[in-house]
Amino acid sequence: MTMMDNELENIIKTKLGIFNDGDIPDEDISKLVEIYVRGKTFSGRKRKINLLELKKFPYLRRIELSDFVIDDSIVEMLNSYTMMESLQLSSCNISSKTLLNSVSLKRLKLDYCNVCDYSKINGVENLHIVGDKNFMLGKISGKEKIKILTVQDSIINGFQTISSCTKLETLRLEGTIVDNEQALNEIKDVDVEIVDEYKPMR
Predict the structure, then answer these.
(1) Dihedral in degrees, nearest 10, Cα atoms 21, 65, 105, 86
(2) What pTM does this model have?
(3) Domains present along the chain, CATH in parentheses
(4) CA-to-CA distance for 105 and 81, rounded, in angstroms?
(5) Which of 140, 149, 61 is nearest to 105 (CA)?
(6) CB 33 within 8 A of CB 58
(7) CB-neighbour burial class of residue 108 (10 A; exposed 0-12, middle 13-18, buried 19+)
(8) Of the chain's two ends, which shows fewer C-beta atoms within 10 Å, N or C?
(9) What is the pLDDT of residues 151-167, one digit of tens each?
């Protein structure tokens, strides 16, 4: 299989253990089940990577993207995956007007992302938010799907809508402020874990 983006091709080849200059063999497409792509080098240089070429790998189950602009075209690509179970976006600018709503997605982590519109984020079984001083819980679509909600180093606005998370089993708050303490105190039949200080893993 021929790829137009040489940098992305090299990332995928390394993941697959391919170290020649040829194309990626068609029989190896199904072997790529997870991928991590950074939009910047460790020195901070922006990399010109065409994420849309990931469409050529429909068997991806776990995707992690860092330092990218997540626009409509990227969300549409992510929604097209029928086997993707886990998605992590780190330091991304999520500007899409398209609902992120992959049918197979079970775990979504947004790690220090700039989310322009939380109404374009659909609830999943395991939702993890890190470093958002304006996490708009009330705008999340499909809150009834959330079973585990973890929020770290954030401020939650619209917390009273936690009552719409009808399947919630576990709520973890670490270094996080909620805008409605009464709603927090009224939570019942949910395992609530509260830690005052957020200590990121080193």
Answers:
(1) 80
(2) 0.94
(3) 26-195 (3.80.10.10)
(4) 9
(5) 61
(6) no
(7) buried
(8) C
(9) 999 999 999 999 999 99
